[in-house]
Design brief:
Order of helices and strands: HHHHHHHHHHHHH
CATH topology of the largest domain: Serine Threonine Protein Phosphatase 5, Tetratricopeptide repeat
CATH architecture of the largest domain: Alpha Horseshoe
CATH class of the largest domain: Mainly Alpha
Number of strands: 0
Number of helices: 13
Helix content: 40-55%
Shape: elongated
Structural class: mainly alpha
């Protein structure tokens, strides 16, 4: 299942209870991220207008924008934070950018952040770009292909690999995602690329997982290149 919008009434109530209790651990950044999680647009506006740094990280290392971008259905929160000056390229402590977070769950969020200057080639701590986050994320079917297409049209590298050497094609092949594999190959993904850590190709990974349809397709593409 995808990461979907929490019930805002419930979460807002929980946030208000925490505030009323005067939780000693809370910082201004924690409060802002909590408001973003709650989808509390008025609360976000109030905190930012009071001088809270809209790009501040909370105790868990996240920014309000990265968190909001992580949920499908929170595009209005993303848009508000950006309108309040949030940096679309400010990352969480692990290097996850708002675009990477959005690419996992939301076509609309992805398009919006790109329109505001989000860096399509930025990498998180494990080397993942927004395209790799898209492939590994919760979008399915045409939505995932659409987001991948958008990212590639903005300059994403189809063959960029994680720190361990896995490319988007290898990941898709290992998951048995035939349509995604077909799409990536149509966009120029290197069928013969080998994973750095063990030398395995997308074909090897598909075969290991028993994805016969993916194996057959990749074999046909390998023969075409021979």
């Amino acid at each position: 299942m995808g990461r979907t919008r929490p019930d805002r009434n419930f979460v807002c109530g929980a946030v208000l209870l925490l505030a009323a209790a005067g939780a000693a651990w809370a910082t201004e950044a924690d409060d802002l991220v909590q408001m973003a999680w709650a989808g509390d647009l008025e609360g976000i506006s109030r905190l930012v207008e009071a001088g809270v740094d809209v790009d501040a990280r909370n105790k868990d290392g996240s920014t309000a924008l990265v968190l909001a971008a992580s949920f499908r259905g929170y595009e209005d929160v993303v848009e508000l934070l950006v309108s309040k000056g949030a940096d679309v390229n400010a990352t969480a402590s692990d290097g996850t950018s708002p675009l990477m977070a959005a690419a996992k769950v939301s076509k609309k969020g992805t398009e919006f952040l790109l329109s505001k200057g989000a860096d399509v080639q930025a990498r998180s701590a494990d080397g993942a770009t927004a395209l790799l986050h898209c492939v590994m994320g919760n979008l399915e079917g045409q939505d995932r292909l659409d987001v991948a297409e958008i990212l590639l049209s903005k300059g994403a590298d189809v063959d960029h690999a994680l720190a361990g050497g896995a490319t988007a094609l290898m990941i898709a092949a290992g998951m048995g995602e035939l349509e995604l594999v077909r799409f990536l190959v149509s966009k120029g993904a290197d069928v013969g690329a080998a994973r750095g850590q063990d030398g395995k190709t997308a074909l090897d990974l598909a075969a290991e997982e028993g994805h016969a349809d993916v194996v057959a397709f990749l074999k046909s593409k390998s023969k075409t290149k021979d």
